[in-house]
């Protein structure tokens, strides 16, 4: 198979669509601009898009081409269910692909393209089937006990650092990383490296948006990013080679032995698989965990229901995923001239699906801005996408979310968001970088533990 990066559609700075736009262009929010997202998802703008411009042309600045923004639930599902018309491979899932001469660091951009998530049929399904055993219910259940023990340990850390603590730092970053490393088979001593590499990958997005702010917060970033990326890929190459020679019962071994058209994956596809699993395997769960804490503070009646009946936690988790929509968008590219909701779309034009908008479509979810775990269609959200490209790790993410809140509410039933939250500049994921909580409720203090003295025994 040819590399995805060899045939990828490069942006040419096209600012107007081939066909006339049927719907108005709204410009109150720059959907493509990472810096615009630091205040959270633009729900009022989404509502206006759904109502007046459900398939809206969105120009981009500089060398990037404009794209069609899709905001209604049914339209998003229509695109997801037509992968032969709306390709993931032609232009990748990325909202823009810059000129090849600007692909820096050398391995990073090609690796971001040469992976499962950017493939169409038949190779996409061929790889999914080979890797599915680590995402089926039986495997998810097999790691549940380990994940539970890790949650208990993390809750100990929260308590030791409380009552006010950064939930992202001490819990929601740590749990998905642990689960991912268990699945991959990453050695305990190597796991801090994963944390470091993730940190630099996230800073890269911020640096692109606001280099001066990133430089002031972390002056060494421009000098350390290149070496960090080089180390990340060197480690991935080394462990993949080891798993080919010495396979183990872990996901890294499965990836290392995966084949396309009967041939083992080339190093370029192994690099892409490594990058995808490290980055995508953490983001969705981390931001869902953090976002749920905020929601349970904003909707105390729903928390009360869960505390009264913990069996509702699976429903709570589904509704939280709808409300949070941790992945903001995916991009598809028209493989042929087509039409969506009355809008003609030309071959090779970009189509961007805004999941946060679809998940709050009142035609599907009445009173969509209200957290209601008892709604009839609570599991019909599209937080994990839909169709053949639905997130492979969705069951793992849901298991972590449910198990975490079973134990969090058992131990800290009054845990409350303090109002302090930081959201990193990122147009792809809802990147909550800091969320302060009080473990014992607003203004709460650590409970005083009484020390009971035993009476001295009388001498014989």
- How many β strands by DSSP? 12
Specify the number of helices.
18
* Category by helix and strand content: alpha+beta
Oligomer: single chain
Helical amount among residues, as a percent range? 40-55%
Q: State which percent range the strand residues make up.
A: 5-15%
Low-confidence stretches: none
Strand order of the largest sheet: 1-2-10-7-3
Tell me the span between the first and last alpha carbons.
88 Å
| Helix and strand run | HHEEHEHHHHEHHHHHHEEHHHEEEEHHEE
**Inertia-based shape:** globular
Describe this protein's structure.
The protein has 18 helices and 12 strands. The chain has 460 residues and is of the alpha+beta class. The protein has a 5-stranded mixed beta sheet with strand order 1-2-10-7-3. It is globular. The relative contact order is 0.17.
Provide a brief overview of the structure.
This protein has about 450 residues and is of the alpha+beta class.
Task: Give me some keywords for this one.
12 strands, alpha+beta, 18 helices, single chain, three-stranded antiparallel sheet, 46% helix, 460 residues
Which helices and strands occur, and which strands form pairs?
Layout: H1 4-7, H2 43-52, E1 55-58, E2 67-70, H3 73-80, E3 86-87, H4 108-113, H5 123-131, H6 137-142, H7 144-161, E4 164-166, H8 167-172, H9 174-184, H10 191-209, H11 211-217, H12 221-245, H13 251-256, E5 259-260, E6 263-264, H14 267-298, H15 300-308, H16 313-324, E7 329-334, E8 338-340, E9 343-345, E10 350-354, H17 355-358, H18 394-411, E11 416-423, E12 432-438
Parallel strand pairs: 2-10
Antiparallel strand pairs: 1-2, 3-7, 4-12, 5-6, 7-10, 8-9, 11-12
Helix pairs in contact: 7-9, 7-18, 9-14, 10-11, 10-12, 12-14, 14-15, 14-16, 14-18, 16-18
